[in-house]
Amino acid sequence: GAVVSQHPSWVICKSGTSVKIECRSLDFQATTMFWYRQFPKQSLMLMATSNEGSKATYEQGVEKDKFLINHASLTLSTLTVTSAHPEDSSFYICSAKRETIRYEQYFGPGTRLTVT
Amino acid sequence: AQSVTQPDIHITVSEGASLELRCNYSYGATPYLFWYVQSPGQGLQLLLKYFSGDTLVQGIKGFEAEFKRSQSSFNLRKPSVHWSDAAEYFCAVGGQAGTALIFGKGTTLSVSS
């Protein structure tokens, strides 16, 4: 159990367009999901915390108007990269928090975004 | 400040030799500690985790890690490395309340034959 999926697994878009990435918890409910970003050969950096039914909390330096997060249900959070630029090209990974005794987190497989 | 330090950027180990990857953390509360492995272009795979109790934790693929509170360390070990272990390894720390994880910069493991 505790599977998290992401869709799409990879996407190529043109500069100036928007792209939506979905993060789903398949077999558990997640009131909280996290979005991370990973540049090539670098570590994962937290972008934002997504809470079901409320506004996301963004980390310092992350543009909330550029990276729109919607956590509309207990199993789905979406990240929309608006007006994408080549510098937005990255690997985006979500995780979902499962509220068991220890609040374990489960990571999705990631989405590779390439902006041309 | 909360942080994770992986001092070794790149390690090369001969196949069959033992491995130790270092991880030091700084965290204001009781830490939950994790080791993940990532192959190129892939997502994260959880190797093992420490929440409490026995400080020597066994994970998948023959990996183990030891939590040493006095040294703020959580080093990953494997007695005999296989070529398929070549990958990027990340140490991470989180809190009991289920906060987002803080990752180290990672250690690239190469395995020579």
Q: How would you explain this protein's 3D organization?
A:
The complex is a heterodimer of chains A (116) and B (113). In chain A, 0% of the residues lie in helices and 54% in strands. Chain A is built from no helices and 11 strands. Chain A is an all-beta fold and 116 residues long. Chain A is globular. In chain A, strands 2, 4, 5, 6, 9, 10 and 11 form a 7-stranded mixed beta sheet that branches. The model of chain A has no long low-confidence stretch (mean pLDDT 93). Chain B has 113 residues and is an all-beta fold. Helix content of chain B is 0%, strand content 53%. Chain B has no helices and 12 strands. In chain B, strands 2, 5, 6, 10, 11 and 12 form a 6-stranded mixed beta sheet that branches. A 4-stranded antiparallel beta sheet of chain B has the order 3-9-8-7, with no helix packed on it. In chain B, 35% of the residues are buried. The A-B interface holds A 32, 34, 36, 42-46, 49, 93, 95, 97, 99, 102-105, 107-110, 112 and B 32, 36, 41-44, 46, 51, 90, 94, 96-98, 100-106.
- Overall shape of chain A: globular
Mean pLDDT score of chain B, rounded? 94
- Which spans of chain B have pLDDT < 50 for at least 5 consecutive residues? none
End-to-end separation of chain B: 41 Å
Distance between the termini of chain A: 37 Å
Helical fraction of chain B: under 10%
The SSE order of chain A reads EEEEEEEEEEE
Number of strands of chain A: 11
Strand portion of chain A: over 45%
The run of helices and strands of chain B is EEEEEEEEEEEE
Strand content of chain B: over 45%
For this entry, what is the oligomeric state of its chains?
heterodimer
Give the % helix of chain A: under 10%
Main beta-sheet annotation of chain B: 6 strands, mixed
Q: Sheet with the most strands of chain A? A: 7 strands, mixed
Poorly predicted parts of chain A: none
